TrEMBL record:
This is GNAT family N-acetyltransferase. Signal peptide: none annotated. Gene3D superfamilies: 3.40.630.30. InterPro entries: Acyl_CoA_acyltransferase, FemAB-like. It comes from the Bacteria. It comes from Shewanella phaeophyticola.
Amino acid sequence: MCLIGREAEAYERNQLDYYPKLVSSIPFTPTTGARIGFLPTLSDIDKQHVISEIITVIKQQLNERQWSSWHGLFSHKAEHIMWANTGIIVRHGCQFHWRNNDYADFNDFLTSMSSRKRKNISKERAQIYKAQLRFTFVNGDNATDEQWQGFVRCYQRTYLKRSGHKGYLSAEFFRLIAQTMGESIRLLMIHNAKDELVASALYFVSNTHLYGRYWGALSDYDGLHFEACYYQGIEYAIANQLNVFDAGAQGEHKVARGFYPVQTYSSHVIDHPALGDAIAHFCQQEQTHIKLYMEQMMQQLPYKTSN
């Protein structure tokens, strides 16, 4: 969402420094939410005034401190509209979220799909059943040190295999979130028939949403990623009557598994006038492509009828 690749290249081609820059977001968490803490008594007019003042200060700070830019990522729609009203650059993106249409259980969810899509999911899950794996959700504040250490091993091994390093988040980070927000965490522990840990996944939960964030595996099984990161989350959301399952950024392969395309929003201030104009033009053109892309993804949803 923060245009890092193209933007950084543009700065480098023009022999300008892209870093440092300012970012308003939840680190490592591409989740939509409020980015400004307003008093509940403020009117929309007052909120708009506050955001306009914030943009004025941001522009002053960029100029005075020689920072390249500011990026407000994944704000919710109502707040995004207020950012856009200040005339700054806005960008649209797309994620994929699962919706709970009052399903009784996972089979009820499957019944809402076309026969071919339903069979594909059942086939994927059958691979896991044959492997005799056991899936257990553990509340973060009840998880033992051994379980947290097991999750960290899984997380680090998978990052190392994929990226050549052990991940951006340290074992200390996971220890701290277990202490400070354990009640909002669900650890999925996955064991084989010998009761050996083979994989784990980290979820966060609110009153209405389930958020899937990190996972890792110590052993390789066909279809395990889909089971651990999608199907187990869907089952948990249904069992606990949660409205939405947000399994993370990207991944149009989620559409075939029942996840809807959802528009996301970001806001940007670029200090360099010429680069700012170029980036604004790109974002305007991109909005048309995002809209078309989402329409195409909606047409590929696996449901018998539009839910």
